[in-house]
Amino acid sequence: MTATVDIITMKKKDVVAVPISAIVIKKMSEIDPETPEEDADKRQEAVFVMKDGKAELRAVQTGIQDNTNIEIISGVEKEDEIITGPYTLVSKNLKKGDKVVVKPK
After folding, report:
1. Which residues are bridge partners to 56 per DSSP?
2. Which of 40, 32, 24, 42 shows the shortest CA–CA distance to 89?
3. pLDDT value, residue 33
4. What are φ and ψ of residue 77, in 5° steps?
5. What gap in Å lies between CA 84 and CA 67, rounded to an integer?
6. If you placed Cys at 56, which of 17, 51, 64, 78 could pair as Cys (CB 3.0 to 4.6 Å)?
7. What rounded mean pLDDT belongs to the chain?
8. Contact, 35 vs 44, CB < 8 A?
9. Cut 0.85: pTM above it
10. With the CA atoms of 60, 96, 83 and 51 taken in that order, what torsion angle do they form, in degrees rounded to the nearest 10?
């Protein structure tokens, strides 16, 4: 006999959350060129935000997650447009300053 269960350890309401695939791990120097040399190679969670039609990389602090979404504690605001897409496209191919176009779902 087998069973499948969901164990809910925490719930939050009215938070900023994004698809997990929108989160990228980048070197601090990629996020902020002004990063001190001793911190340049440290890794940081980040998201791409659309600003004036271009991709802007922002460091974020994440919180709880489920199977599809992850909470953003700091680094973006509710009105920011987060760039999402296939994980490889967002994490490997997209670069700061790339032009982006909003496509309806």
Report:
1. 49
2. 24
3. 87
4. -110, 165
5. 16
6. 51
7. 91
8. no
9. no
10. 90
pLDDT at 31: 86
Half-sphere exposure of 31 (CA within 13 A, CB side): 23
User: When comparing pLDDT for 94 and 8, which is higher?
Assistant: 94
Which CATH architecture best describes the domain 16-93?
Beta Barrel (2.40)
* CA angle (30 as vertex; 37, 89 as ends), nearest 5: 155
Report the percent of the chain where pLDDT is more than 70: 100
The dihedral formed by the CA atoms of 74, 79, 43 and 69, expressed in degrees to the nearest 10: 90
CA-nearest of 92, 97, 90 to 52 is 97
Model pLDDT, residue 14: 86
- Please give the pLDDT value at position 51: 94
Tokens of 23: 């989160």
CA-closest candidate to residue 71, choices 35, 36, 19: 19
